[in-house]
Amino acid sequence: MRAEIDGAEAWRQSQGREGAHDIPASLEARAGELAAEGKTPLFFCRNDSLLGIIAVADVIKPDSPQAVAELKNMGINVVMLTGDNQRTAEAIGRQVGVDRVIAGVLPDGKGSRRASCAQRAVPPWSATV
Predict the structure, then answer these.
(1) Other Cβ atoms within 10 Å of 95 Cβ, number
(2) pLDDT tens digits for 77-91?
(3) Is pTM beyond 0.70 here?
(4) For residue 82, which of 54, 56, 113, 61 has the smallest C-alpha distance?
(5) Which of 45, 37, 40, 73 is nearest to 55 (CA)?
């Protein structure tokens, strides 16, 4: 995302995105730590100056881990499809207990990925959350 503020270019960049400005290794490392906690790190810059890093996170519903556990107890293979980066997605997946995480899926690609998962479903059923 790019914008212009008082004649200066401002931009926001997710970790690991192409076409990006250089991010210092120390901040890339911190972004990795945040992702491992299930947060999505975003870098903010103005012109060529890094302004900072902000981490955003989806809130897991308190009953989600129990719901996933109940599905698994019924023999359902639970797959999480998300647009989040791999590290963030894996952290969230661990918190809720899903069997498999598929990260980096854009909204328009989720339907085909669901169909692909359904074709490879382990009997008797599979659910995608």
Answers:
(1) 14
(2) 899 988 888 888 899
(3) no
(4) 113
(5) 40
